Amino acid sequence: MLLPWFNRLIPGLVVSTLLVTITPVLAQPASFDALEDITYWTDLCRLQATAEEYEKALAACEQAIALEPENPDIWAQHSGILIKLKAFADAIASANRALTFDPENSLAIAYQCVAYTALGENETALDKCNNALRVNGNWGSETPTLAWFYRGEILSQAKQYELALVAYERTLLQDPENSLVLTRQCEAYVALERPQSALEVCGSALSIDKNWGDIGPALAWTYQGQAHSQLNQYNQAIFAYDQAIGLDPKNALTWAAQGQVLETLRRDQEALVSYNQAVALKADYTLALLGQCTLLNRLGSYEPALAACDAAIEGDGDWGHQTLAKGWNQRSIALTGAQHYEEALASINRAVGIQPDYVAAHNHRSTILWYLGRYVEALAANQQAINLDKTYAPAWFTRGVIFRATEQYSHALAAYNQALALNPFSDWGWTNRSLVLWELEQYTEALHSAERAIALNSESVQAWYNKGVTLAAMGEYRGAIATYDQVLALDATHANALTGRGIAWFNLNDYVAATADLKAALALNPDNVLAQNTLKALTATQSTETLSTPIPPPPPS
């Protein structure tokens, strides 16, 4: 791809206003004699190129070459025009002709650098730019900034950002008010995760606001947004992305970057909209497709998530700061959500095979093995995750789940304690801790854990339900009933909550209310054995007019 700054850097294509105003005078030869006037044809070539009439400029240059076929400057100018026409191989050949007659024509060598860059032959291009700077011979009406800039571009594409920054700095020494070069510098600082430096140079680019080439200020706003994001300044990042999108709504990079910030802020629906926009603009954009997959997994839309992950893996390979391993991990999460556990295991094996130190992938692998009932393997995979990072709270939560499944409740409690020490803000963790404490008959602590979960997420059905079950186990039936009321306010079809409330009413000798709840529970789930047995006990109690031993509540979830 031809890089945008080339418009400014080719000698003869940017000329003074005085020369531009005389273009109509030179548009046709003034006389027959002018046809063999080398100055006439070289001027016409330059001016028509300035007017972006490249075919005509090429013809004029070739007239000049016919008159002076060994003039290296004309061949160099011819090479520059061929680059504008995207005839890169021909441009290289013309530059070679210039070098035949002037081996130290740095401009011709620099044009070869530009052409090879456009052809994607970056190693050769870098050699040419380096050679142009080493020779430092005839630059025509240009300066070494042409070679320095393209050297920076090539090094940046090769992810050699420190060296690219040196090249951009050399460019700015001679052209300090160039917003394009400053923006490229900003991009390199973002890639190096040096956000303060990035903000400074992007700010300078926007403040100077000139010499943008073909990119315009939108890209500077985008990189500024990424720098703010690296500093966890998410509101400033969103403002920057809004500015960029306002200037250029068709830049997929900006939409994807905005999606990442919104994803971090858990503004899931907004993030998904941003990723969707990025994919609409660039259908094979791996980073945006991965964002779609991640958000759809988070929202529980597993089949669309799977399609997005497959597209990401087959996409353009631009993962940004993400990795192919994350693509396979998210694919595995989608398959797990869709209950395709064997396929999910195959995908997560790909993830850990690609990146053996991927802690989250090892943890998810242990979760899949837990779903498959392969508890020994699940625990081994979980141990791998913990060995890689003992501070990774999700691995300790998973460990608790595995130990509970094997009825090792004390070990499960220890795992949950460790997890919550690392992340005390997990309502899910406190909910599960309440469950194992209930199993251990430590009801006061179980109640405390359930209440901690509710304080973090007052809409957690499981947390409210576990609180109700625990209160019932403690014999606090009226408190249990009030808690089950809250569960049913959140989920009117919660059969176990109806069963638990029915049992609580039964234990309070309110048989009418108990019968109503138990029948409602059986209407939702006719196979609810506890509701069936309690209803039978209730009938027996009413017929004999004697009280039964208190019936225990259903287990927590």
TrEMBL record:
Keywords: Repeat, TPR repeat
Family annotation (SUPFAM superfamilies): TPR-like (SSF48452)
TPR repeats by residue range: 38-71, 145-178, 218-251, 393-426, 461-494, 495-528
KW Repeat (keyword) present: yes
Family matches, as Pfam families: TPR_1 (PF00515), TPR_16 (PF13432), TPR_19 (PF14559), TPR_2 (PF07719)
PROSITE patterns given in the database record: TPR (PS50005), TPR_REGION (PS50293)
Protein name: Tetratricopeptide repeat protein
Provenance organism: Adonisia turfae CCMR0082
